[in-house]
Write a structure and sequence with these properties.
The chain has 8 helices and 19 strands. The protein has about 450 residues and is α+β, with helices and mostly antiparallel strands. The strands form 3 sheets. The chain has a 7-stranded antiparallel beta sheet. A 6-stranded mixed beta sheet has the order 3-2-4-16-15-14, sandwiched between helices. Helix 1 packs antiparallel against helix 7, helix 2 runs antiparallel to helix 3 and helix 2 packs antiparallel against helix 4.
Length: about 450
């Protein structure tokens, strides 16, 4: 995958994330709104489809699609093919592209030859039959994570002329699993809720970093997965615009924005949800203690709610045709949607998205404390963002915002009493450590 293409896709991810989570003046809707609803989106599933549309577009539609893509429409189809080929090499990631058209719709051979390998099927014109066929394709290519194709099929006499779709599904397991327990935040939006807590510790302090951004400090935690894909959790300051926090998180994980690891940060509270200090310890290793929450997020996006963002303003005007490079018959974008999901638990992460563009006719407790060591604690106990990132290319595969984490359900964890006893022991140990730290500080 070329760096120019990766940067272009990540640019669309950041712009879409900011709009989808925060909303913008003039928007007509969209999942996430003011950041009070969980959402997930996958720009890497949208970008290749926009590129293929740009390859067959003309006039203002071609110019707008090119601007949205961040590259010239002349090179868009080749970039889309290269991107999809690169994604096929990512371990644990399934991708597919499909094209369906009415049998009597003439298609330009040059445009067809530029398409990536994938399913080429026919639409019957019967809404129920076509919906079942495309739903089956979506379910098959996401392993059942997304069961329906997000496309509109208007009833006769109107007909969807053509459907261009992509499917992506990512499954990964953590290199180091979390311990599962419960947490009840005592302040913030989740105060009083009993949630599924995920906890673990590591000696790698720089798994957590802090970036100073125009919107304020942002804390980013890297959770390492197998197969070369990691998930980064993103937390902003209380009151910071959620969309901007997530957009800045994209900048951090793609290294466009500098960030400082916990090993070099000052003691105290150098970032949102982060506390760093020196403690008495039985061993010399520093420790990062992590607490977050499990989540399961689904979202439906209508791309035409943000037509300017995706370069679809002119292309969705059905008063004219905009794609002479696709078909001599006048075509316009009748619908453009994405269905997406993401799930984060103690063992791993999975995410999937199906995107469809339809064309219509145009018009352990300490014992001896011999060492003073650095200890960092990071806690995600209020709404936060997440980004799934391919480690080597820094391509963002999925982005989202969590406002409704999974509640704790005792029936899922029969070991609750054992965990509660261990939690009480850990709390007692923490209290004892605090007392020892206070004594040590007074002795200095």
């Amino acid at each position: 995958m070329r760096n120019t293409t990766i940067r272009a896709v990540n640019r669309l991810t950041a712009r879409w994330a900011e709009q989808a989570v925060t909303g913008k003046t003039g928007d007509t809707g969209g999942t996430g709104g003011t950041g009070d609803t969980s959402t997930v989106l996958t720009a890497v599933g949208v970008w290749p489809l926009l590129a293929l549309l740009a390859d067959g577009a003309a006039g203002p539609a071609r110019e707008e699609l090119s601007e949205a893509l961040g590259i010239s429409a002349d090179s868009a189809a080749a970039a889309a093919r290269e991107l999809l080929a690169g994604l096929s090499g990512v371990q644990g990631l399934r991708t597919a592209t499909g094209l369906w058209a009415l049998q009597d719709l003439p298609l330009e051979q040059q445009w067809l030859e530029a398409l990536p390998d994938g399913a080429h099927g026919l639409l019957t014109g019967d809404p129920d039959t076509d919906a079942k066929s495309l739903d089956a394709w979506a379910a098959e290519h996401t392993g059942g994570l997304v069961e329906r194709m997000p496309v509109d099929f208007p009833p006769p006499p109107a007909h969807t002329q053509l459907v261009l779709a992509s499917a992506l599904a990512q499954r990964l397991r953590w290199i180091q699993p979390f311990r599962t327990g419960i947490v009840e935040p005592y302040e913030g939006p989740w105060a009083g809720r009993v949630l599924t807590a995920l906890r673990r510790s590591t000696t790698l302090l720089d798994r957590v970093r802090v970036a100073q951004t125009p919107a304020g400090p942002v804390t980013v935690l890297e959770v390492v997965g197998d197969g070369g894909v990691d998930v980064h959790l993103v937390l902003g300051a209380p009151g910071a615009p959620p969309g901007r926090v997530l957009s800045d998180g994209v900048g951090v994980v793609t290294r466009a924005l500098p960030a400082t690891g916990a090993s070099l940060l000052p003691e105290g509270n150098p970032g949102p949800g982060l506390r760093i200090g020196t403690v008495l310890s039985p061993d010399p290793e520093p420790y990062l203690h992590i607490q977050t929450t499990a989540f399961d997020v689904t979202a439906e996006h209508d791309l035409l709610d943000h037509p300017g963002l995706f370069g679809l303003t002119s292309a969705s005007d059905t008063a004219a045709g905009h794609f002479p490079g696709i078909s001599p018959r006048p075509l316009a974008v009748g619908s453009a949607r994405q269905s997406a999901m993401a799930r984060f638990d103690a063992e791993g992460f999975e995410a999937a998205a199906v995107t469809a563009v339809a064309a219509a006719a145009g018009a352990a407790a300490p014992t001896r404390f011999r060492y003073r060591t650095r200890q960092a604690e990071v806690c995600f106990d209020r709404p936060f963002g997440f980004l799934a990132v391919h480690r080597t290319s820094r391509l963002v595969l999925a982005a989202g915002w969590v406002t409704d984490p999974l509640p704790y359900e005792e029936r899922e964890y029969p070991e609750y009493e054992e965990w509660q006893k261990r939690a009480e022991e850990e709390a007692a140990d923490a209290e004892w450590e605090a007392e020892q730290r206070a004594v040590a500080e007074q002795a200095q």
